[in-house]
Amino acid sequence: MLNSFMSYLHSTVTPGEAGNQLWALIYVLIIFAGVSLTVMWLINWVERKALAHFQVRLGPMRVGPHGLLQPFADALKLMLKEDIIPAEADQLIFWIAPVIGLLAAFTVYTVIPFGPSQAVSDMNIGILFMLGVSSLGVLGIVTAGWASNSHYPLIGALRSSAQMVSYEVAMGLAVVSAILMTSLNSTGTGTLSMIGIVRAQQEQHVWFLFKFFPLGFIAFVIFAIAMVAETNRAPFDLPEAESELTAGFHTEYSGLRWSLFMLAEYAAMMAVSSIAVTMWLGGWMRPFPNLLHGPAWELIFSLFPGLSFAAFAGFAFIGTVRMPKHSFFKVQRIGLGIFALVLAFIALVLFVIAIAGRNADTSIAASFREGIDYVYWFLMKIAVFMYLFIWYRATWPRYRFDQLMRVGWKVMLPISLGVLILTAIVGVLV
Amino acid sequence: MNPVVNSAVNAAAANVGAAPVGTPYFFYGLAAVAILSGLLVITRRNAVHSALALIVTLLSVAGLYLMLYAPFVAGVQIIVYAGGIMVLFLFVIMLVNIERVSKERQFNRIWPVGLVASCLLLALFIGAFAKGRDLLPKNPVPQLSEGINTQQIASALYGDAGRMGQYTFAFEIASLLLLVAILGAVIMTKKKI
To answer: I want to staple A297 with a disulfide (CB 3.0 to 4.6 A). Which of A48, A81, A292, A378 is the partner?
Structure first.
């Protein structure tokens, strides 16, 4: 066991390719724990705080300093809440629906390339697998709406399935135009593998966002719109439109089951964001790898993970200092101070790794530094998308259903078809 | 981990792309799931339950394609059938009043005919298998590399390096046929376009 544990440490391929089940299991556990914690704590908190500030409110302030512990309190509340199954509901399907959504949302993480070797596996059909399995997520919503045996959930489910089918077409065509770009190499053979797509961008020295300038950008914008519709987020959140359908497909759900829906929704948001990052934003690559290269720039860019943790620590310290001088806030003050110290310690560790592994050799420190860099840049790009999701929600009013269908079929579909054809033509010409 | 498993892990790490261990077990498991859920599809009175069982069947068939070293077909099976067509099926079925349908007596009594027909089909399959056994390849699972499956399908369908592929013409005809079907459906449902 130790043998197979140590033998992988210098590997440059994913555990799936290396056939190393132990490390594959470790990766799966890290991803599952990481995504669950990020969704449950970080994104939940950021969304509530950001939405509150958009609307000139404070948001959660009471549980923990600046409401940092509010998500944990909520999770505890949801776990202790009574789990109600309506008497007229279809028991089995009602029970199974959130699980379908959660399975579909988490299964796609097996192929997401956080780095060239930081993925559970690299499939030949990576992007196809991701689109297919994430489209299974709608089955959870549809079955939930139907099994509740109630009007609003059923309408939510119907809306969701119609919306999903409409936007998947434009989404798929946008992805195909990016896949076409991967074939612009000496052999003329493209790839569907997620790692292969990022490698293609690396070889062509350009993110596909900027390839054939407006074309790649338009395809990206189409995907970015379709992915909001696909994950049922505002302004396309008609399946759960609270002003019309109470809570849409999850009206009858409560307690832990409801929180499974939330977990699945946010995990799916991160999954589709990572498709966008992989296809158009260069995946794990840091910004300007061609323009700013050399050992000095490498060192500067590898300091970024530490710097961002140092910045978080700085914010936490400022919060500690600015806490009102009243005995009521003493506990919060100590807690925030400890939190800041923990963040500062993480930043210190990251700095040490970045400096210890600055020589691009085969030492453990160097491979650690590389791995941290890859994962950091990938996660930063995902974080931008997650913030955009929140920003959209605060900014745009909800579409009406006929508008949604019109945008999907009459605007996005023709544009994405046109972009696909133009990409093919330009690709043949150059 | 005991030494036997450990050596198996190392062996798997050593020769990537060799036949995976436990293939028959996966095959029988997936086949059993496919058959059981297929039976559920025709025995459930509730149409939504049937549709969900059909999704399970389709997914396990996708798993069988994976076992045959055809990941592309498996991916397309998931994205087209399980993700696309079955969602539309459910969409339609949910608009039907299940309560009334499940209480209604079936007025067509054709199940004996169906039984005879399916038994005949089964007999045909068994007969074809028994007669043509010698025609089947000796090694049923060809040791293909799944790493280039998609590229192989592409060159069979679209050709390679300027040459027309083996199935290019048939493929284009089929896509044209589907386009005609789509346009026909649109024209039949929309009086005014």
So the answer is: A292
